[in-house]
Amino acid sequence: MTERVPSLLGRLRLAGERDADALLAWRNDPETRRWSRNAGEIALADHLAWLRGVLASDDRLLLVGESEETERVGMVRFDRIGAEEWEVSIAVAPEHRGRGLAGPLLAEGERQLCLRRSPGTVLATVHRDNTASVSLFRSAGYQQDGTTPADGTGFLRFVKAVSWGDE
Asked: Which of 43, 62, 140, 166 is 20 to 30 Å apart from 123, CA to CA?
């Protein structure tokens, strides 16, 4: 199933192995790594094993955003962390940053999560100094939950209740 989304984002679709190179390039981009909980580079073999596991799991949903011209522009991933709790991860392709894509990627990702799974709550873990991500999640209705991950690395947690029919 693919859905049309207004803005520079043409559609969001299920990821496949054909997306491996783009996903790895985005993950290993220095700016992405700067804000990641794991800032190291990922090797291709490790990435392919991870991707195959993600694609085979009912506890994960990986979606790729494309422009009207079907160019990959970003991704959003949801990982089940509880019975009705999911953690979101989002990345905009480096060449498309600053074009207002993160909000539509997140909103359409949440919508598709509701269509495909029964989410309940979505959690976002964001580095406190990543002002763009903090702003994104706040503007999307996520609330800081007052806790930080136990590792003390400067990350904040945001939560949002989502359900079928949320707009």
From this structure: 43
